[in-house]
Amino acid sequence: MFTKLQERKINHFFNVLDPDGSGALTLPTIVAIGDRYARIRGYAPTSAEAQRLRAALEHWWKTVLCPMDADGDHRITREEVAQRVAAALSDVKGAEAFRGAGDAFFEVADANGDGRLIKDEYVDIFAVGCGLARRDMIQAFQRLDLQGRGYLDLDEWRNLVEEFFTSTDSDAPGNWLYGTY
């Protein structure tokens, strides 16, 4: 079972992926995050970069989100996400799937593919792609960039993802991964 903090974080995570507030995640909703991000990065819809983003999000949908679809209706509800996260937290294979999910999202956000998520990439994927407040995402990045280098590498990102989903410490830096909630 989740603590109240974890429950708030899981609900916020769902809201981040459901920027239109439909109450369910669908493939078009997830792909639209990448399409908006591609536009802000200046990628033409048919460019290799835009297609890479779309393919990465489609892969993320198939490998990470689809297994959450308990009733097979191709719509993933808040409850289905919460159930899957709870199961993943108690299962080694589930935890590995979450790491893979975090890695895939890092790859999408790392627009130039240099293995570093700079502030602009981080802010844009969440502010433009997911509709979160830019100001909040700038503040979140500052709290996540513990070393003050201006970027997050994949290992840091993995630790922050794990901390977001598992920590019951309200002061844990990973709680800022998806902005304020």
UniProtKB/TrEMBL annotation:
SMART domains membership: EFh
Chain ranges of the EF-hand domain: 132-167
SUPFAM superfamilies cross-referenced by the UniProt entry: EF-hand
Gene3D superfamilies: EF-hand
Record's protein name: EF-hand domain-containing protein
Species this protein is from: Nonomuraea purpurea
Lineage: Bacteria, Bacillati, Actinomycetota, Actinomycetes, Streptosporangiales
